[in-house]
Structures are given as structure tokens and as C-alpha cells.
Amino acid sequence: MSKKYALIGVEGNHDQAFVEKILRKLLGFNRFNGKVSELDPFWRKFIPVYPKNGKLYARLDMPSILVKDELSVAIYAGEGSKLVTNLKDKLSNIDRDRISAFAIIADADRKSPIDIARNYQKGLQEYFPNFPDRPGTISRETPRSGIYILPDNSKEGVLETLLRRCGEIAYPTYLEQAENYLNSFSEAEIKKLKWKPFDHEKSLIATVVSILKPGKTNTTSISDNHWVSEKTYAAITELQELVDFLTTLLGIEANIKSG
């Protein structure tokens, strides 16, 4: 069986960790060990050059790479609004004919998911002419391509909106206590802090993370804790829909155990 390659673009490191955890925990993928000598040659063009763009403090954008049987998947975090630009830079340097599947997973934020999907379609059609312009849709043309807008392809929201739902199942007590703490802040205090839309959800998740992994990042908690698990998958429709999207995109079966 010949090797297949799939590329998934996400906006940030939290999204990268979340999708990686789904692939590892629910879909049976194994994480690449990080040794340069064992990296599949196909992904070598993705190795970042340090210092990035001459900036010593810029975060290096090495994708997460996972493998299952003959399928190798790279999850590339492209710095939010720079995702399309950064992806184009990478795509121009690899053999795209060897890519069997490509997708974007992005936040809706305060925008319409359909508008976001259309913007990505316009930005990427040069490389993927059949890339769909509707959220949650996968084109079956070769290569398969799709776009998923968090939290559920229809509502406003961000990754933390979905993580909150996961936390209600995985960590209900901690989530309730964190919610009570955040609700103790007055409207005047919130205004002074200049919170943006969905900063409450982001602060809520960060508060629970600080309990589960004191001193660690959200990325570490998403990777190590039980935000994504068989239990949360069984209870949360939005997570099931994202898993269905990924299995269809990658052409694999889920076979997820319950409980």
C-alpha cells in the first residue's frame, strides 16, 4: 500500500493540540517522535528555519505529525489571520500531487461561518480548485478537501466554546467553581480589563487548566487531560460532528469505544 499524506491547517496552537488529541485518542493515530532522522521526507519542507524571518523571538511553526498505517497527517498552526499566507508559502514548496486530503479548521468568532468558509475558499482555490465554500463540507474530488468552522459550523464561537462543553462532562465541578469565580467580577471590572468577545470562555478554560496543570499552558492540558476522551465524545454532538468530518476527510473509520 502506498503512503498517503494529509494536511490540516488550523489557526493556533490550542487548535493544533485539540485536533491532534482527537487523532491520537479517538482515531488511533501515533505521534511522530520528533527525531529529524526519522521524519518522513515529504514533510521536510515544513521544518522551520530559525530565526524565523530574522526574528529571534518568533514562534517556530513546526506542524504536529501523526501516523496511522500508511497515512501521515500534518497539523499546521498558521498564526491566526496569517494562516492562508503561511500555508501558501508551505504549499508552494511541496509536491501537492501527493496530498490525498486537505482541510482548514478555524474559529467562527463573531463572524458568519459561511463567510469564513468563502474567504478560505477564495484564498486557497489556487492550490485546491475544488476547496468547498460551505462550512462542514468536504469535496470528494482528488484530493479530498474540506473546511470546519468551530464550534459547530453554524454558531458564533471559538475553540474554547467547544472546550467548555467538553469540560461540562470531563470536569463539571472544576468548571462550576471556575464559573463562580469569574462571575464574581463586576461589569465595571470586566470593562476595565477590556475583555473581547469570548474572553470569558477563554478565561474559564484557562482557570480550569491552572487547576489541572498548575503552571502549564492550555496546549499542554488539551494534550494531557481529558477534554477529548471517549466520555466527552459520547456526550457531545459537536465533538462527534468534528470527528465525523475528520474520518470522512481522511478516509478512515472511527471505531471509538464508549465510556
Helix content: 40-55%
| Major sheet description | 7 strands, mixed
| Secondary structural class | alpha/beta
Radius of gyration, rounded? 18 Å
Counted up, domains total 2
At the first level of CATH, the class of the largest domain is Alpha Beta
How much β-strand is present in the residues? 15-25%
Q: Which regions have little confidence, pLDDT < 50, spanning 5+ residues?
A: none
Mean pLDDT across all residues, rounded?
A: 94
CATH superfamily of the largest domain: PH0156-like domains
Q: Strand tally, please? A: 7
Q: Strand sequence of the main sheet, in spatial order?
A: 2-3-4-1-5-7-6
Query: What is the tally of helical segments?
Result: 10
H/E series: EHEEEHEHEEHHHHHHH
Summarize the structure.
The protein is built from ten helices and seven strands. By secondary structure, it is an alpha/beta fold. A hairpin with a 2-residue loop joins β3 and β4.
Describe the structure.
Helices cover 41% and strands 15% of the residues. The chain is of the alpha/beta class. The protein has two domains: 4-156 and 236-250, PH0156-like domains (Rossmann fold); 159-230, no CATH class. Strands 2-3-4-1-5-7-6 form a seven-stranded mixed beta sheet, with helices on both faces. The chain is globular.
